[in-house]
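A favour, since you know our structure tokens better than I do. It will help me judge whether the discrete encoding reads sensibly. The space below this message is yours for that.
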Amino acid sequence: MKHLAMAALLLNFGVAAIYAQPGSVDMTVSGTGANSAVQITPGSPASEYNLTGEGTLGPFTFRVVNSSAAAPDFPSTCTGLTKIHFAAVAGAGVLRSWDGSLLTVNLTGGGDCIDFAANQALCIRIFQITGGTGRFKNATGALTLTMTVVPLLTDDSINHNPVFFSVTGDVKGTASKVSIGLGLSNGPL
């Protein structure tokens, strides 16, 4: 009888944990960024970000590859004599969860507001969730990665172009159809 009660309890928890309701995603990230050898859009520079963090989806790593426009644009969100903006035009990312599940995302917008006086950039990447594996198999939603990027190393050219960066920031958005499973310490989504 004791085993039947335990089995019923576990089954009840398992069914309740299959899919969480749509919820907010709020996570912090840190890591590095660098120029990428991946060429997404011919003639456009590409970047890679290797990040780790923790938040509503638990501990994770997040790798993003994207390309930026070849020429600057001038949005009202990035103005000033020492600032220049490049739109993010193509890219994707993979978030690897603590349990090995992968959440895949495609870039839908964003850009880099480079502030030469402050020697840093505010970089925003907007993603559409495209699914994944494991507990993210049927996931949908949208995420925004907001990063402060600071150059650490420059190349040997005359212009000393930055090639390696420190990154801090956050990931916010919404996610639906995420299987939370058992053991997620930060609550359901």
